[in-house]
Each structure stands twice: as C-alpha cells, then as structure tokens.
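[Automated response] Your request has been received and processed.

Submitted sequence:
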Amino acid sequence: MKKLRKERLSFIFDYLKGSFRIIGPKIENGVVILTEINVHDIPAGYEDHQKAGSYRLVMGERPEIFSFSTGPDSFKRFLHPPVSELFSFRKSRSGITIAPPVRGEKPPAFIGIRACDLSALKLHDRIFLEGPVSDKSYASLRRGAFIIALNCSYPGDNCFCHSMGTGPAVIDGFDIALTEFDNSFLLEAGTAAGQDILSGLPLEDASDADLKEKAVRIERCLKMMKKSIRADELPGLIYRSFNHPHWSDIAGRDLECGNCTQVCPTCFCSSTYDLVRLSQVTRDLSGVSGTRVRKWDSCFSRNFARVHGGNFRPSGKAR
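Generated structure:
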C-alpha cells in the first residue's frame, strides 16, 4: 500500500478529469449530495446529524476531509438514471429501424463511495448484468465507471452496516480504496486500472504503523454505530409476520410518495413507455418515429401493481 499527503489529493482529480466526469460529495441546499465536483467541493470538516425525519449539517472539529457519513443521495442514478432512453425507432416504407442511444459524455469516476454503496452496486450488477439478458443501457454506463472507494471514518446515526456484513471497511469492487488519516490518505489498488493511476501519483510507502492505524480507525467506526439488526433472523421473522398489525400502522402513515425508493441505493423498479412524434405520422403510418424510455417507478405506488384484470396489491398494507 501507498500513502498520499492530503494536500496532494488534487493530483487524483487532475489525473482523472481528462477522461472522466468526477462524481462525489458536495453541499447543496444544506445537504450532502452527489454531483460532478472538483476537489474543493468536498465538504471538508462538516458533520451530519441524522435521525427520524431530520438531517442537519454542522461545521465540526474533525480533521478529516471526508468528515461526514453517507447522505440522502446514492450513486445509482449515474448508472441507472431516473429517466433514460433505451432506444429510438423509426418506421418507414422499407421497414422499422431501431437504434441505440448515443452517449457522448465521459464515463463517471466515483470518489468517496462507501462499502454500503459498493454492496448496493453489486446488487445492481447482479440484476442488470448477470441475469438471462444483460441490460444494455446499464452495461454501457457501468462498463467505463472508475471507483475510488472510502473506508468509513465515522458512521451515520442510523448506520448498521456491520449487522449486514456490508461495512464499514471496503473489501472489493473498487479500483482504488482510500483510508483517511489526519494528514494523509492510505491508498490501495484493487484493479490494474487503479494501479495505473497510482503509478502516476507522488506517493510514499506505507508502514506497518499505517496499516495498524487503518485497522484502528475502521474498528473505531464500527464501535461508534448505535444501531444493529439480527439479519440472519429477518427472513423467518418477515414470513411469520405477514399479517402483523404493524403493516397497517405503517400504511396509515405512508404518503405513497415514492421518496424512499428514489433515495434507496438498491431499488431498481422502473416502468417503460414510448414517446411518439405524432407530427411526423402519415396516413399509412410510414412516418412513425419515437423513443422507448425507462423511468424509475416505485413498488409502493398503487399503479405499479396494476395489471390486466385488476390490482394484486391494491392497499397500502399489501404494498
């Protein structure tokens, strides 16, 4: 492993920005969101305080640049966009032509992606890439993505990744992994592409003391977590509680707005529809053209379960 002094973090950005859109944390409207950034956009020193129905950012005294935990945004929208064109189509007298979308923007380089985010990304890879049919739209965005992961220094108030085996340490699925110390970053390459980046940076050799410091910081983060869950008991508990009155209680308070599935990093439900340009339609329908569009949907919405003949989940409790 290698070390990079904190004041040289910009070297990574300089190395990547020619080939990638660098996506990372930035404060907008009092919230840490994920967007295209430069090194100075990272909200260094800010601490987040989260609880039910509340999210607050305050400037603290932590020495870390990544002094905050995960916010209400996820990386999924850059690889599984809220609205995306799947293909375009055109009907002419000679037949129907179908063309894939043209993507001219640079691939994303994610910086600061946590272990829990990586776990969610692996689930999307399994759903979109490893099924009977690979999703071409997702594959085209995922293929060129570069991932700089981050071992968590501090958990959020609602974090319980240790119970799920998804953190706080990143294990795999990254090109480069960062561990932040007071004055430097510990860097680990996870792929050949990551090693190529490291070979061009002004790095120092990491010592045994640095490796011990990494373990200490991850253990500290784990011990700071306030919540836990018995994940091994969940499947049986849910099955036995299918008709529990708690579902009615939740349904009575649920607004069915879909916000939860939009911010959830693992939710992937969607609906598709066609946008047809009616102005070009001729009497014999030879001028029909349009696009097939995919849009995020929510399994908590009433219409999501509507099929021919009825709705198999008509109530909020059922959903």
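Summary generated for your ticket: The CA atoms of residues 148 and 281 lie 48 Å apart. Residues 2-229+246-311 form one domain.
If you did not submit this request, please reply to this message.
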